[in-house]
Design a protein that fits this description.
The protein has two helices and two strands. It has 97 residues and is of the alpha+beta class. A two-stranded antiparallel sheet has the order 1-2. The termini are far apart.
Length: 97
């Protein structure tokens, strides 16, 4: 009974955040979309149960800052497009000296 609720939640999330905006051409295209979305979902998308955290954080450590809404000195935010720009993943990148 509980497994059904988890499945329904996952299918709803995939539909709302991915398939409502992309139209798969064929099965191969759908598999590619779902593979990329799965990677984004598990590695780059924040989850509310984890606060601002993500399920599989990268090995890069987040630099300390005196305030949580200010960028740490010497760093900038780098964006990576996911699913042809439907979503974006963000990370800190050290600025060149």
């Amino acid at each position: 009974m509980i497994a059904n609720a988890f499945c329904e939640r996952l299918v709803g999330t995939v539909r709302r955040e991915c398939l409502d905006f992309l139209i798969p051409i064929n099965e191969r295209h759908l598999r590619r979309i779902l593979t990329e979305f799965t990677s984004h979902y598990n590695r780059g998308r924040p989850h509310s149960a984890l606060g601002p955290g993500i399920p599989e954080p990268s090995q890069d450590s987040v630099p300390d800052s005196d305030h949580r809404h200010k960028l740490p000195g010497g760093y900038r935010v780098k964006s990576t497009a996911v699913l042809s720009g439907l979503h974006h993943e963000y990370r800190f990148e050290k600025e060149a000296a």
